[in-house]
Amino acid sequence: MGEGDASLELPGEPEELAALGEMALDMEELEDSMHGRWPHREERQAAFERLLVCDVCSPQALLAAVSDRGGGSGKCRLNQLLEEAGCRALKAEALASLAEQLEVRARQRIEVTLEGSRPILVTAPHNIYLRRDGHSPHVMEEYTTLIAQRLARQLGGACLSWSRAEQKRSELLWNLARIRKAPDPSSFLDRCNRDPNYLHTEEVTQNPWFRQMQRLAEKWRDSKDHSIRPTLHVDMHGCRDPPTTPSHLTVGLAAMRHEVEAGRSPLPMSRVECFGSALQAELTSVLSQLGLRPSAVLVRVLLPSLSGGRDTVERLSGAWALEERRVTQSQQAVAFAGFTHSCQLEMSKALRRSLSRDDGVTAQFGRAILKAWVSCCQGSTLPALLPRTPGCRSDDEEAAVSNKVAPRAVTGRPRSSGEREVRKRRGDRRSCPSRAQLA
Description:
alpha/beta
């Protein structure tokens, strides 16, 4: 760069560059939040420019403008700003929808996507860098959001993950810590972002992630005849390639086993074991076609008892030992939210790469999970499952399902599959029991 180009130089300090990056993320998310509210591009652009002029430059500021009705006219500050500039104001229903979306994505920093009416929740809690109490920070697990989103779409359920903006923000802070060679990178990460897979039992019910899980579970759980409806939670994680991890896929069912042993599950132990065997058979069939390297065991199922203490709880089994007073997403799903089935899936990096590169393979992966679950629900006291869409069920699924599907909804602007895939690839390389009852 020559002397005449000096005005184009960016700030030299990494902290200044990170601050610029966070400002850009805020503006990008602000603009993204406005899609669908103003369908015409020119109108949306005029509203966006008006907000920037009035120093509404982030989703948090937009939420404050929606909530502020202190002007005496009864109108929220957002509509006042828009009308003063000749822009179209939002109706009450649109304002309520926008406020709900911003509360989740901006304040809670998470994203919930609904892909159908099936009672299935797919979570990806480690798609950002996270502080972990008393331990080294938990690094981002690449591709887990992309895979979780595709699985939710294939399964016709819902997906819960950190927002795309929060993914990028955590990467900025992590890279800043590396540039500064921080002895404790955790000090650079946002302390407000609690690891959803490592919560104290005392904090679960107030955690934003759990609240979203519980909201969906309550919506799905009870059937019209007041019997227990089967619900499935699938928690997606990444692990190291073999031989560091013994298999390319580890299925953890320890949380389900503990609920049975504690007498709180509607399922007998034989059903939990049946679920594990079905998952191992169906998923092995899919993975055997992928040519994963290095060569290793493809799928293993972990079903340890939690009653034996820390030494008996295998790593990646889907549960923390009881004396830890911590709970995984799977433990929260079955012990707090009331899901009947929950499995933690730990995928090697080779498997995650394979699934991220081929939507068809991910679809097979999803069908295998669904087939295993449906086969274990048939013939039990649990009622049959609802379908996602007509014409996309296997023979086994067809025998167990009958009804219609609700339209897809999302806590942000609805996107086409192609656009959502591009954005995900950019952003993701990546009635409760008492505490005493958990013991």
